[in-house]
Hints:
The complex is a heterodimer of chains A (about 375) and B (about 250). Helices cover about 25% and strands about 25% of the residues of chain A. In chain A, strands 4-5-3-2-6-1-7-15-16-17 form a 10-stranded mixed beta sheet, with helices on both faces. Chain A has a 5-stranded mixed beta sheet with strand order 9-8-10-12-14. Chain A has helices at about 20-25, 45-55, 95-100, 135-150, 185-200, 210, 245-255, 270-275, 300-305, 335-345; strands at about 30-35, 60, 90, 105-115, 115-120, 155-160, 175-180, 225-230, 235, 255-260, 265, 285-290, 295, 310-315, 320-325, 350-355, 360. Chain B folds into 2 domains: about 1-75, Defensin A-like (2-Layer Sandwich); about 85-245, Cobalamin-binding domain (Rossmann fold). Chain B is about 35% helix and about 20% strand. In chain B, helix 2 runs parallel beside helix 7. At the A-B interface, helix 3, strand 11 and strand 13 of A face helix 4, helix 5 and helix 6 of B.
Amino acid sequence: MTAAGTPASAFADTTAPATLFDVVAASGAATIAVIGLVKNAGKTTVVNALMDNVPLRFGLTSLGLDGERTDHLTGLDKPRIVPPRGTLIATTVGSLDRSHYTMEQLERLPFHTSLGNVVIGRAVGDRAVEISGPTTLAEVAATAARLHAHGARLVLVDGAINRLGSASPRVCDAVIMATGGLVADTLEETVEITLATLEMLTLPAVDPESRSLVSPQTLSGGRAVAVDEHGRLSTLDLDTIVGEGVRVAREVERRATKVLFVGGALTQEFADDFSRTLPPLYSVTVVVRDATVLILTPTTVARFRRRGIDLRVLTPLRVLAVTANPYRFPQPYNPRLFFGAIADAVGDRAPVFDVVHGLAAVPDGAAAGSPTTSPPPTPRTV
Amino acid sequence: MIVRPYGDTRDDGMMQFSFTLPIAYSVKAADVGKQFVEKLGFRDVGVAECKAIDPEFTFYVAYGRTETGIDPDKVKGDYLEVEAMDYYAINAFIKEHLGRKLSVVGAAIESDAHTVGIDAILNMKGFAGNYGFERYPEMEVVNMGSQIPCEQLLRTALDRHADAILVSQIVTQKNIHVQNLTKMIELLEAEGVRERFVLVVGGPRINNAFAKELGYDAGFGLRTTPVEVASFLAQEVARRAKNTAKAT
């Protein structure tokens, strides 16, 4: 990894300064989840910039709560959300009430939240609204489908705090990952966590041969299925592997398992117990549904690999871009310095953007075929 | 409709203040207090009480009149829409609408060592003259205590076929506390069991909107009594049971 603090030279000479808006417009994605590595990573700013600069009819909802005046926890100002006129928005009755927003309501969804039911309506433009969608991922997926049915070309799902869940292929078909100065105490650590999380989110798919061995049904209800070197399948006698790292490791060894499919969550505790109990030099491929079921420190993935445990996914995530927000409390990083450090570390894994300061680092071929003439981001004046 | 503070007559705008200034009591102390209240924007200020409570501190009781009013209908919050019930009504409600005991598992999770919040709600003796859940004949309660890993809380909730999971957390500005709370949600989602439980978060800095932001079904803050949480749980679990019955 490049040392933190390297001046932003690697990207300054980029000849094709594609913007995040080009990348998104060219992606063909129908639903994009904007996730953040930390609270105040800049998710909402990215959502705002997209709505202002990409000429598509947007649908907008949130897994959390966005657009409120001040942050409940820190008391700091939060970015307001002023969806362009005609944007389809899904938010709760309570949020509409709190932000004194009236809109033409198109549908009342049966999703109950602590702020009342979720409703879909058409944005009136020029006014700020608080966006808070449904509570569960299944409901967010259903809400996105309804937004599409009402005519949204591209649905944006604003994330919640540091949750990665909305990046699940159950919810969206592409992801924008927002990182920021608040991720860790030092720039070096922030870069390290950003890179590790990106690598975790973009874990490769299992080979098609192994994949064909299991169906989603086999893995329902968080079960685990072991495959030995002769391709024989056996289901582990466990309702869930959560908290069963030691037992699963012993079973893996006993059954001479080559590939282990996991239907539910893979937690830090499991990872620790599993890798500790497995005999040294035993190599096994562990396959999870998708990267959002990994409830662990991202650096664990690399530790697994070194230990001979190859972590794979059934459905890979498509990370369109990483956004970098130099904000930090009390003193923000120098935007170019912060951006340079993130962009250097990410390298050609994904394009990196700072939509506020207009910085871009696009690896060759990442935004192939996209025009590079779109206007610079308009600064928001709210 | 605009309302103003009520003193002797409607809309007279009279308010009473009590405060302490870090000044020694002297002949001019009363005027210092009076002018301070006037600086706040109040008129017709009278100082009723002005006393030394220490060689360097003076305590005041003062009155003043305000023109400011407020329209209660325009105040929008993030309050839970729950019908308030008492201990007996809740037990009867559970019996009638669920026909079985309501099962609750609660804990202060991960690094949090504070049990005062979860105990106030769950312990039999309760809090502020309110019995805790353990006293409710129609509830089955497991209070796991503090520093419980999310994994363990999930396992217990699954084993006990819990209707509700209560998570207690002292949230500070440090990210770790928020991340403990989101970890629980991510774990439930990854396991595919999020819909099975009513998920409640409680703590001194928690409110309902923040609970929504975190991904919980309800949030309870300071001064919450067991009967408020129980009212919500009984009604929410019954509502879900009804929806499930309708769907099948």
